[in-house]
Amino acid sequence: MVLAKVIGTVVATRKEASMDGLKFLLLRQVDTDGKESGGFVVAVDAVGCGVGEMVMYASGSSARQTKMTENRPCDAVIMAIVDNWEVGGKYKYQK
Question: Which pTM does this prediction carry?
């Protein structure tokens, strides 16, 4: 699982039929301080999140293990909206 911030949406009107009805979001990885630090990824939204939210996503074969993405050609899925995290006893992010 990786921490990321939802920075946008992705629309694909033509896609594999099994992907119809799925919402795609553009994510940017963040560090433990919540600062954008890593690369970008397009992920399927399995939890109903929106732009600006901090999320956890899974990639690879793990991305196909949610009810929404099972047996679909998906390589990244948002499976949690983050409420907060702490490092060393200090909150680094709170929703």
Answer: 0.91
